[in-house]
Amino acid sequence: MNGKTAGEAPSLEVRNLVKHFPILGGLLQRQVGTVRALDGVSFSIRRGETLGVVGESGCGKSTVGKTVLKLLDPTSGEILLGGVDVTYFSQRDMWPHRRRIQTVFQDPYSSLNPRLTAGTIVGEPLENFGIATGAERQERVARLFERVGLRPESMRRYTHEFSGGQRQRLGIAKALAVNPDVIVADEPVSALDVSVRAQVLNLLIDLQEEYRLAYLMISHDLAVVRHISHRIAVMYLGRIVELADKRSLFTMPLHPYTEALLAAAPVPDPKHKSGRRMIIQGDVPSPATPPPGCHFHTRCPYALPVCRAEVPPLIEVAPGHRVACLRRPAGAEPAPLTPTI
Amino acid sequence: MVAIAAEVTGSPGWGQRIGTAIRRNPTIFVGGLILVILTVMAVLAPWIAGDPLKLTPAQRLRPPSESWWFGTDQFGRDVFARTLHGAQVSLVVGLAVASAASLVGLTLGLLCGYLRRVDAIVMRIMDGIMAIPSILLAIALITLTRPGLAIVLVAIVIPEVPRVVRLVRSVVLSIRTQPYIESAIAGGTRGAKLMVRHILPNTVAPLIVQATYISASAMLVEAGLSFLGAGVPPEIPSWGNIISQGRSFFQIAPWSILIPGAFLTLTVLAVNMLGDGLRDRLDPRLSRRM
To answer: What is the CA B187 to chain-centroid distance, rounded?
Structure first.
């Protein structure tokens, strides 16, 4: 892996990533519009670090995952995998690099081929990259099963014979098989019962400590992201609006959208009284016709006229705390905003 | 088809389980049973029915009786022997056309669903083939060459291929978006392995169903071609040319037309019943579409 010679190179770095989907229409299937799923997204993840990505459905968080995995081809920007620019690699060129970035999918039911045995699914990446064959592969698959808390005897069973939590463990075992540097986990626990969520999340945390994995953890669930992430990126309509350390984001949200998102999350305490509770109105605008300027201005209680015209850059307002809001200029002391209406 | 019928009726649970299977899928059972009986009769035809070409001019146009079960035609040939030998042609045509069309269609369909550039070209060719009436294409092909079973098979297979290609392509396109396919790609699975291990197995069930419909339609097209004199040569008895040769004597010897006609109807019905039953059994989603 000559990419690692850089030493300090982040496991995964994304610069100004853009992914547009064409909308085809009419008799000749001409392009009649564009869905701006990702509109300039930048972040980086170091070894052993988890970056959580949160946002409402349709904000592009899953597109980030699929694009960095090169399951989708980016429109523009850069994707650096351990310092190697894979942005415009063809599927053929990407193939050797797939060993370094693996994925755990959202739905443990549809993400495992129902016609294959569990052992075949987990062993397939080993087979693909010629890492181990025959008895050695069986041995490694058995160890992977043990590592994720499954009985190795269950290798011969089919996926429908496993519970949701066990299937997600299978997905994790498959991702681990090739010793990747980065794992993209797209809503890894949202399809699971609450009782097994913590087990799966804790397994992911243990594995991260053991193998110094970098995680890109995509979720709509703040509690999940808070439990597992070191840093959190908040997305809204294809852009990152706030990117900060977990502690800093939860104690001092600087973007109005983050504030609203935190206020909307239920607090499991009946005595909890929310002092200043912020509720935003309306729905997320369509990513096919995003509003001009700051995408959030249509729903922002603090919006100024300038927010309609100018796209706020993601700037560092406090150490390690970036926010894309025109009302948060660099260097200014973070203070509560006052509604404009 | 016969193998499938045997598999369905001969499930390993014996007595009771076979009974339940029959009650649950009566159409598969009835269709399969008729086809099994027909196949046995066709295979044993030379021994149980004798020579279909033997002329006994003294016994011309005899009605069905103890000595001539299905009567005789205008040359004194045994209609029973001719009908059973005709079953050989129909069953061979049905099986061969269905297998060949499935094989070619599967290959092209997989490629189309997988490679965009191939898709654009092949699907336009398929659209073109679909626009040609199949009987006309067959007659044109046969008049270009010497008549024989092989060219009849080719002529019937060509117009059936586009249907299979479309079916397989649509299955591949829908399977391709399944998360487990993306998961396999992310895990480094690619090329032929992705196709054979992850995509191909899903096409088998709808393809089997489609193959039964193709074999039924192939039998009908073959009978039609043989009736028109463009099918198998007259020295090979086929239901189509038996009916064709008997048509001038229909008023005095209707059995030489009605009996092979009834066999043709029954066979096509049995194949369709098997297909319908398998469709409902294998893929409930398809049942509304066809």
So the answer is: 41
Nearest to A266 by CA among A194, A218, A329, A318: A194
Closest CA to A49 of A320, A324, A238, A330: A320
CATH class of the region B36-288: mainly alpha
Show me where the domains of chain B are located: 36-288
> pTM score, two decimals?
0.79
pLDDT digit string (tens) for A228-242? 999 999 999 999 999
Is A223 buried (19+), middle (13-18) or exposed (0-12) by CB count in 10 A? middle
Cβ count within 10 A of residue A145? 21
Angle between helices B26-48 and B79-114 (to 10 degrees): 130
In this prediction, residue A6 carries a pLDDT of 46
| Interchain pair B187, A177: CB under 8 A | yes
Q: How far is CA A158 from CA A162, A174, A176, B188, B199, in A?
A: 8, 15, 20, 21, 17
**Cβ-contact B191, B135 below 8 angstroms:** no
A116:B197 CB<8 A? yes
Q: What is the pLDDT of residues B267-288, one digit of tens each?
A: 999 999 998 888 888 765 544 4
Distance, C-alpha B177 to centroid of its chain: 32
Per-residue pLDDT, A121: 94
Q: What is the pLDDT of residues A117-176, one digit of tens each?
A: 999 999 999 999 999 888 999 999 999 999 999 999 999 999 888 999 999 999 999 999
User: Could you tell me if A254 and A101 are in contact, meaning their C-beta atoms sit under 8 angstroms apart?
Assistant: no
Compute the count of residue pairs across chains A and B with CB atoms less than 8 Å apart: 59
Which pLDDT score is estimated for A4? 44
Tokens describing residue A19: 């992914």
CB B241 within 8 A of CB B227: yes
Decide if A105 touches B, using CB distance below 8 A. Answer: yes
Partners of residue B197 in chain A, C-beta under 8 Å: 113, 116
Looking at the complex, report in whole angstroms how far the Cα of residue A217 sits from the nearest Cα belonging to chain B.
Answer: 16
